[in-house]
Amino acid sequence: MRRRVFAQIGAAWWAFLGRLGLTKGRWQRLPRTNRRAVKTVVWLAIGLVLIKIGGVWQWSALAIAAVVLVLVVPDYSRITIRGRRVGRFIVPVMVLALAVTYPFYASSQGSVNPGMPQLPIFGPVPQMSTMVGMAVFAMMALGLNFVVGYAGLLDLGYVAFYAMGSYTAGWFASSQFAHQNVFFGAIGVTPGLTGFHFSIWLVLLMAGIATAIIGILIGLPTLRLRGDYLAIVTLGFGEILPQIARNGDNLFGTGFNLTNGTGGITPIDPPGFGNWFHHHLGLPANFLTLGTNSDRAFFWCALILVLLTVFTSARLRDSRLGRAWIAIREDEVAAAAMGIPLMRTKTWAYATGAFFGGVAGAYYASYVSGAFPDSFFFQISVFILCMVILGGMGNIWGVIFGACFLTYLNLEGLSNIGGWLNNHFGPGGSDVSLWHKPLDVPEYAYGIYGLILVIVMLFRPEGLIPSSRRAAEFHEGVHDQPLYDAAA
Amino acid sequence: MAAHAHTEVPVKARRAYGKYVLPGIASLLILGLLWWLAENIHHEGTSYFITIAFIGLTNGAVYALVALGYTLVYGILELINFAHGDVFMLGGMFSATMILSAFHLKAGASTASLIVAILGSLAVAMAACGLLNAGIERIAYRPLRGAPRLAPLITAIGVSFILEDVAIAWKGPGYTAVPNVLPTGHVFSVSGVTYTWEKLIVLLVTVPVLVALVWLVQKTRQGKAMRATAQDRDAAAMMGIDVNRTISFTFLIAGALAGAGGLVYALYFGQIRYDTGFQLGLIAFTAAVLGGIGNLPGAVVGALLIGFIQAFNEGLTWHSPGSDWTESIVFSILILILVFRPQGLLGERTPEGS
């Protein structure tokens, strides 16, 4: 039925364009690049008009439009240098350059650059702190993508890995264990402080490994289960670990304070490169001493971590292990029959996903300088899952896009939208007063993510930027058509 | 074959030995639990223990209503209906609204007005939740019948979050309080063991609903269609059963049970919040798995067990982990059952499906 509705909308649209002299056949005879150019120009024009009408116009909007055109329209993939296909790296490198230079053009003195245009409803471009969050969550989403996107195992307890990473950072880079006094390359810590103080870079690695071990421990008994039962078991672990974090200030009545209970572990040491690198290479000795520029340093470091994750994702996907994951996703029985060791392969997916979740969690803990049990709930697991599903399961670009968009919504977008709604329709609003109490849009955040999940699953289950393989699975189905729906 | 038989003997012997490891560990665990209970009885006295057990029975009755909804839907569709707990929560909110705004019940109301109000709220909550659940099935699950099995699970999670937001928009993020309308007098009080009316009323609402459900599933034509669809959907369709309608009907029944559970919860616990359903739903789901998912008596048995476990954990004091750890204990049970005995205590059907 849904397909019929779409077909009718499509027919009406082409009938309209046909009156303007553009029939479907004529459109499809155009070269692909031209078609893409026309579509991009139309969308950009709509966007620019919207900015002009509802947002804040700046001439820089034209520059942004031009950059988008250059990024999207030409077909770079055929460019070769001496037979090597370097073309496929052009767009990623350009996007990376845009991201790296973001602090220079989009922010000034710790806030948003006033020279940037503002979208209607959504408001200004993201702040630097939001960008750090986007990078960290992109990393987490890429980690979850190993499990959900590649291996096709639904993990509803990913927050456990995030928590584990954060708490590892809490244990090894703060004054949590006051009886110990171990320093190992820590930055910006007064020498007399008690507790473990390892260098954050080392802690990131430790967090990743510790989390991967936890992932293996969780995975070994449970990965035998299929589909929804695995989802429930992971959900169970995702609830148990944060509860241990919440109640861990007096484990088993022994008075041993593991997690400092509901107060959380804070402060956690900031990252930095130390004095030697500061003097010889000009790298910041301690990120916190940079003042308003500290977010930049955090952002660039997070970008490096994301790059590592992307590299690992891409390389693993095409490796023997990655192809085994995809085979399991598509048909577990057939994969087993072809000699793929199911348990070992799945456990690797789990451990890899957990590793990156742990690293991201540790880095974020260092950024917010604390590991708080309040930030580890089931909702976070679904939030990260929503990024993967919205963007497109199994597709690195899609997952990164989903993570950036949803993190932006979570940290800034929803409150901007709420402010706009209240200004226009709220009490004493400029248009009409539709409701009498200011609407708290961020309070409804998770329902909005839930709505996104439902809509994506119903109308575009492969996500916004799908991997072609995953899309085929969703559209052709992996089961036989049921008999009783054949007539409908 | 015969030539290999000689070498297979030690393998068989080892397997026969390994068969006893798991039951052995399980019985050790159960023995430990019984010892812990016995120590507690010794420390607290029998009457206190029985009072706690009554609390467990009451909790278990509420869980049973919700767990049956999970098990009904799983039995017929092999879908974990994540939104079910939130339908239950909205049922509680419907009931709270009915009790407060339609019947204006206050603490110490007369018996007649109490009965009328409870029955009226029960009818409204069951009808509203049944329709809501059937509507959710129509919108969010039916279009995904042919899709990979995880797709409807993901929409179920989405719907669950949406329903929570509906509750926030309706009642706000805080607790909605329901006045203590149930009489708290003693039904009987024998040598320190007291049983209060509010606990009995919970059973008085729950048991008839359960009996009606069993009658519906076992004796009616529609129930037969439900059982047939659960067994083999395609074969049922070939026998002329309208499968889609049967599934809708199952969701209607499951939702109605959740509505009844919501009313009982609102009356007995006196407060309800947007996330009540999620927590309780997971506990009830554990109960359904414990008893054997897809198995109706199993859900009730599992719910009672979980109710007792929760009450003993929170009520007894001798070396009990306490209410901080209830969720962890329940989820540990869930994980252990799923890993070691996925068919549950009573169930025949394995959750792996076929």
Ordered list of secondary-structure elements with their pairings:
The complex is a heterodimer of chains A (488) and B (354).
Chain A: H1 2-19, H2 24-29, H3 32-54, H4 60-72, H5 90-100, H6 102-106, E1 107-108, E2 111-112, H7 128-150, H8 158-172, E3 181-184, E4 195-198, H9 200-222, H10 227-247, H11 274-281, H12 294-317, H13 320-330, H14 332-337, H15 342-368, H16 378-391, H17 396-425, H18 445-459, H19 468-476
Chain B: H1 2-18, H2 21-44, H3 46-77, H4 84-102, H5 111-141, H6 150-171, E1 176-177, E2 186-190, E3 193-196, H7 197-219, H8 221-231, H9 233-238, H10 243-269, E4 271-272, H11 276-291, H12 296-315, H13 326-340
Antiparallel strand pairs in B: 1-4, 2-3
Question: How would you portray this structure in words?
Answer:
The complex is a heterodimer of chains A (488) and B (354). Chain A is an all-alpha fold and 488 residues long. Chain A folds into 3 domains: 1-27, no CATH class; 31-120, no CATH class; 126-476, ABC transporter involved in vitamin B12 uptake, BtuC. Chain A has 19 helices and 4 strands. The longest helix of chain A is centred in the last third of the chain and has 30 residues, at 396-425. Chain B has 354 residues and is mainly α. Chain B has one domain. Chain B is built from 13 helices and 4 strands. A two-stranded antiparallel sheet of chain B has the order 1-4. In chain B, strands 2-3 form a two-stranded antiparallel sheet. In chain B, strand 2 and strand 3 form a beta hairpin. The longest helix of chain B is centred in the N-terminal third of the chain and has 32 residues, at 46-77. The interface between A and B is large, with 53 and 53 residues.
